[in-house]
Amino acid sequence: TRGSDWSAEVCDGASLSDLDPEAIAKAREQFVVKHPSQTAAVNGWDDRTFLNKARVLKHGAVTNTALLLLGRSESATLLAPAVAKLSWILKDATNRELDYEHIGPPFLLAGDRLLKRIRNLIVRALPSGTLFPQEITQYDPWVVREALHNAIAHQDYRRHGRIVVVEFPDRVLVTNVGNFLPGDVETVIRQDAPQAIYRNPFLADAMVELNLIDTQGGGIKRMFETQRRRSFPLPDYDLSDPREVSVWVTGRILDERYTRLLMERIDLDLAQVVLLDQVQKRLRIGQVEHRRLKSDGLVEGRYPNLIVAAAIAKATGEAGRHIRERGLDKQYYLNLILALVGEHEPVTREEIDQAVIPKLPDRLTQEQKQRKVNNLLQELRRSGKIKNRGPRAKPMWMVVGTDSEAGSP
């Protein structure tokens, strides 16, 4: 029924013999990590007593939660029609599937199995600088585990779907079935407080007891903080489909200036870093947020096409790339066109494009670059410096006042 907790239900026909001994041993280890003061007591408990204390059983009876976290692989059939399965899929950069594995219970051990599958390569980045470590792994293991454990805790098992982990060469995607109950990620990060509502409260409580998720509900914020400390892009949550939650964990440097900035400016708060992460990903931020970053000297450019500020770019040795993205002064482009027309008139629009467009900011689209060139030509025409001597569809630009202009109307 609506509002009931599927994870707390006792599974008919299930017994302790359906639980995996290795998973139970691991559960004891993690329970002691969570409750170190109870180490001696835990050693004296039998399995049923321990699992009751760990909130996995309900009055000694095996629950759906017990089978998910600790069940033998074959015990997944006892949960039918619910699906207890996560799938790891390896894809290349073209989205072609290369390998896969389906992982069932015990989900307590799923994180270890998944991390053995994911290729966590060494990233060597920022060779021009000295601040960046010589080598760092693509993924922080805790971040990948947290993304997976969140998916397990919040999966809507009644929807008969799987948890899916897709590994690409430079990012990992974790998707679970069910909407994002807090509404938006920004609220979770800002409030940094336990959620008021859980889809599977019994399961979530058990995962807290077994040290799988954060009891204070700060796991998502900690993921962001961990990526920030590594100077890597922040996680990306895709909540566009109300039927599922997807989180991307990026395993490469997207913008060296952003990376160096995070290394040098440890004083930046997480809200500023979130905005800068959006800027490096070419995502549009609000005007209020833009003004805040601009007043702090962190970004520049004409809204909404923002880039890292010049002072930072210069400090991080990225001045050349910064100029390519910001562009040069408008007068430079006007002088370039005027010199081209003066030396090679008549000049076609195609010839002007070939000379000017490569020097326009990288952040502009091809259409925006074409429009920029058109605006420059019209400004020179209106100022009386050049004139079109061809038809509108195929202009031929010449300098006004040259001999070739004699006798023209």
Strand order of the largest sheet: 4-3-7-8-10-9
Radius of gyration: 29 Å
Number of helices: 17
The residue fraction in helices comes out at 40-55%
Computed structural class:
alpha+beta
Which fold name is given in CATH as the topology of the domain at 330-405? Arc Repressor Mutant, subunit A
Low-confidence stretches: 127-132, 403-409
The first-level CATH class of the domain at 330-405 is given as Mainly Alpha
- Describe the biggest sheet? 6 strands, mixed
| Shape annotation | elongated
Average pLDDT, to the nearest integer?
86
Q: Tell me the β content.
A: 5-15%
Distance between the termini: 85 Å
Number of strands: 15
CATH architecture of the domain at 330-405: Orthogonal Bundle
* Fourth CATH level, the homologous superfamily of the domain at 330-405: Winged helix-like DNA-binding domain superfamily/Winged helix DNA-binding domain
Brief descriptors of the model:
409 residues, alpha+beta, Arc Repressor Mutant, subunit A, six-stranded mixed sheet, 17 helices, 14% strand, disordered C terminus
How is this structure best described in words?
The longest helix has 17 residues, at 366-382. The protein has 17 helices and 15 strands. Helix 4 crosses helix 8 and helix 6 runs antiparallel to helix 9 (219-229). Among the domains are: 6-79, no CATH class; 256-326, no CATH class; 330-405, Winged helix-like DNA-binding domain superfamily/Winged helix DNA-binding domain (Arc Repressor Mutant, subunit A, Orthogonal Bundle). The model is unreliable at 127-132 and 403-409 (pLDDT under 50). With 409 residues, it is of the alpha+beta class. Strand 11 and strand 12 form a beta hairpin. The strands form 5 sheets. The chain has a 6-stranded mixed beta sheet, covered by helices on one side. A 3-stranded antiparallel beta sheet has the order 13-15-14. Strands 1-2 form a two-stranded antiparallel sheet.
